[in-house]
Write a structure and sequence with these properties.
alpha+beta, four-stranded mixed beta sheet
């Protein structure tokens, strides 16, 4: 099985030290005058893939639906993954791609899984 932590953090387009995260986020919001939705995820070595699959992705999909974003593609969301004392900024599309890759799902199969998540 793929090491999901390594797969997720390898997708980061920006990495900052955990203690610097709030200031970096504040600066980004000020500079960009953006309210782009951010979803924060904490990972550690004790969490199995099954835990993340069942307890991180479904609530994220429901959050995206509430924010009027497409939870199937992940487009428009930034996922900040806290792991190893660092904050990894990952595009929602890349975060979804890791899930699909690990679970071996094509777009259609993933779509149906997301529909179950957002339905309740």
């Amino acid at each position: 099985m793929i090491d999901y932590r390594a797969a997720v953090v390898s997708k980061a387009y920006r990495i900052v030290r955990g203690p610097d995260y709030n200031q970096v986020l504040y600066d980004l919001r000020e500079r960009l005058e953006s309210s782009q939705p951010i979803y924060e995820v904490a990972l550690d070595d004790s969490r199995s893939w099954e835990y993340v699959r069942d307890n991180v992705y479904p609530p994220m999909a429901r959050y995206m639906k509430r924010m009027k974003l497409d939870p199937v593609t992940g487009h428009g969301l930034v996922v900040v993954v806290f792991y190893g004392g660092l904050a990894h900024f990952v595009l929602g599309e890349d975060f979804v791609e890791v899930f699909r890759e690990i679970e071996g799902l094509n777009e259609t199969a993933f779509h149906f899984r997301v529909m179950r998540w957002v339905a309740g």
